[in-house]
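Reopening this one. Same input as before:
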Amino acid sequence: MKALENRIPPPLVAALLALCMWLLAGSSPTLAGNAILLATAVAAVVVVGISFCVSGVISFRRARTTVNPLQPHKASALVTSGVYRVSRNPMYVGFAFLLLGWALALGEPLAFLGVPAFVLFITRFQILPEERALTTLFGAEFEHYCTTARRWL
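Same output, byte for byte:
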């Protein structure tokens, strides 16, 4: 399975899972509830997701380091400020929130499986290889950072 490490761009993984979630829609009973409350929840979750993604990109740009998740070995700086104080992977957290918002919008219980599927796939095939590369690049500094910020939330 090592062949999948750092090979599929995380936005593509999220998009493919969103498609799978949509395809699952209709195969199970729809969640019923107050439409206004549901729309508000969807909007709030999506705003949180976008905020995490954008904040992560802005922090990387300010540090003038690569945003390309397929080449973690090209990182020129270890970013530990801003949203990176809350999570070591805010962009992936953002995608997870976007998928959660999509599952809420679909209103299908099976659609919610896309969120843990994303977390598991990204952890195994993206984050763990990134962490190995960052340990090689930044050593003790990265190891210390791992003790101060969680991988997800």
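So the earlier flakiness isn't reproducible anymore. For the record, The CA atoms of residues 31 and 107 lie 5 Å apart.
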